[in-house]
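Re: [ENG-882] Designed sequences occasionally contain unexpected residues at chain ends

Forwarding the minimal case from QA. Structure tokens:
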């Protein structure tokens, strides 16, 4: 029983992670790494400040990773993923716009 489950898992893992590996899967992985980097940037900035902060890098990683994930979702024709990443991109870009506007206003 355990051997059969292990063998079934091995077949499944090969099909998911090796057999379908192509350029688009690599794009998806890169996108996911960028998207995950935003959490790392936020965590490091918060640890350094000793309080919860959201650094500018968080929003740049959000846009870069979110955009690539959106493109990947379009290629995969996944409506749930398309809507989720599309809405997220709007929020990330809006936050950057607000930050840039505030920065310009403070320089005046």
């Amino acid at each position: 029983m355990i051997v059969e489950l292990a063998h079934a898992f091995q077949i499944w893992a090969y099909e998911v992670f090796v057999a379908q590996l192509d350029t688009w899967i690599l794009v998806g992985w890169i996108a996911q790494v960028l998207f995950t980097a935003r959490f790392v940037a936020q965590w490091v900035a918060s640890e350094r400040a000793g309080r919860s902060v959201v650094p500018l890098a968080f929003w740049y990683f959000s846009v870069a990773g979110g955009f690539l994930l959106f493109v990947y979702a379009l290629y995969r024709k996944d409506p749930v993923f398309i809507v989720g990443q599309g809405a997220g991109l709007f929020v990330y870009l809006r936050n950057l716009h607000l930050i840039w506007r505030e920065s310009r206003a403070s320089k005046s």
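QA comment: On inspection the terminal residues look reasonable. The longest helix spans residues 79-107. Proposing we downgrade this to a documentation issue.
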